[in-house]
Amino acid sequence: MRSSRLLTRLALGVTAAVAGAVALAPAASASTSHHHPAKSAALGTSSLAAVLLADKSGFDHNGADYDVLTAAVLAVLKAKPASKVSVLTDGSVALTAFLPNDRAFGKLVKDLTGKAPASEKATFDAVAGLGIPTVETVLLYHVVPGATITAKAALGSDGAKLTTAQGGTVTVDVDRCSYHAPRVTLADADTNSRDPKVIAFDINKGNKQIAHGIDRVLRPIDLP
Q1: Architecture of the domain spanning 2-214
Q2: How far is CA 170 from CA 57, 87, 112, in A?
Q3: What is the pLDDT of residues 50-107, one digit of tens each?
Q4: Those residues with Cβ within 8 angstroms of residue 19's Cβ, 6 or more apart along the chain or in another chain
Q5: Burial label, 149 (beta-carbon count in 10 A; 0-12, 13-18, 19+)
Q6: What are the residue ranges spanned by the domains of the chain?
């Protein structure tokens, strides 16, 4: 069954990427002239974990928030307290994260299983079923360490390649079509899926840790 093969490949491929790939490294771009991280000295130290945990709603019917992501982060840290994912709890460390909303995780589960999950809890259960090493690596693929990249910087970074905490890269694509406002898309390692678009900018702005919401989950391997 195709869905079974996709799940197996994601779990095996991503788990294999854990070895030697989870160490935090400075972010890199294809063109440093395009990549202008904000100065961190004047920024606050509120962590992204604090932002995520501030939402006390839990699993609900709001696909635009980050309940599944929050649960995934907590699951990894519970199983592996020393995981590199814990950087999200340390607001003194500069980073940029791309946060898939609940609807994004639902799309991932549907792509992998062929069925749309019935609820956010079902979405999380399917994601958690991939195994902690896989979830950890997928989360790290959404984190760009060492840089506080604001919306303004992102919009000026067309073509930049960002090195993630997982070790892979994502490429920034800025569409400046005259018919709409500039749009930022992130090209991941999967050439067969639609790339995530940034749909919410500058979450936790003013701090060393900043985030942007995206409408799909970044995939660190190429699925068939």
Answers
A1: Roll (2.30)
A2: 31, 19, 21
A3: 999 999 999 999 999 999 999 999 999 999 999 999 999 999 999 999 999 999 999 9
A4: none
A5: buried
A6: 2-214
